[in-house]
Specification:
With about 325 residues, this protein is an all-alpha fold. The protein contains 13 helices and two strands.
Length: about 325
Amino acid sequence: MPDVTSFISRSFQEKAGWSRIGFAFSVLIVGVAGATLFYILRDIDISRVLDAIGSKPMHVVALAAGFIGVSYVMLTFYDFFSLHTIGCGHVPYRVAALASFTSYSIGHNLGATVFTAGAVRWRIYSAWKLSVADVAKMAFVTGLTFWLGNIVVLGIGMVVEPEAAGAVDHLPALANQAIGAAGLAIIAGYVLWLIPRPRTVGIGTWFVTLPGAPLTLVQIGIGVIDLCAGGLALYVLLPVDPAVDFTAVLVIYVAATLLGFLSHSPGSLGVFEAAVLIALPQFAREELVASLLLFRCLYFVLPLILALLAMAARELRLSSR
């Protein structure tokens, strides 16, 4: 069996942007986000931020935590769906749930997701006779689920709420609607392409048979529910006044998430917050920052702690054998 570290490292270099152009683009996003945060928060009142955090009703925090829980449950279906897609349906859901939760939580927070999440996945799935190539195929299918869901949600959002997308990309409403419609057309074309017969993608002996059209709709649904649940968590944490439409918040959430993903910043740190702060200027800065800090703790920090504890417990259990 090839060395897992070198294999995943090569995959990371090829897929995650360590080309000069990709690296420069990542640095550009992080740099712009850092400058934006410095400009917006240069005179922020920390005491008011802490007061806003302390005054947030517990039932609101609990509701946001519940939506984030739904999001992470849907992430477990990313792995479970991909296992069945690559012909490894013998792996039970409980194993897929553990691998998905720990790999995403650790990968999201540490960055270099292809390497970190891939290493965690292989550590767990290798006990079920999955090879490095199988884990690489899973990464491809889960990535496909991610992008299908993002394109559908962002496409619909840009058509319905082009001004919300414009708050992030600063494009005219008509341009955003055209981009959203184009994204939805691509998804429709992809589904139609899958209808006649099974489609296979790959190089040489490495290939993946794509899910058929009906299963692709299920795949899209998994991604859509995941994103909507995350968007709802941010929505309920936002200040009550002024009122803002959920669809607009969802578009901003997905756009900010994608910017964070493209930046390769650990946990999208700074990039996600900068995008949301720019897109929602109607809120008091201190209250919005408080909402973002609570969201980061619930979506990133708490799952990371739980994932590390889960991995530690698993390793202790295995070593005791």
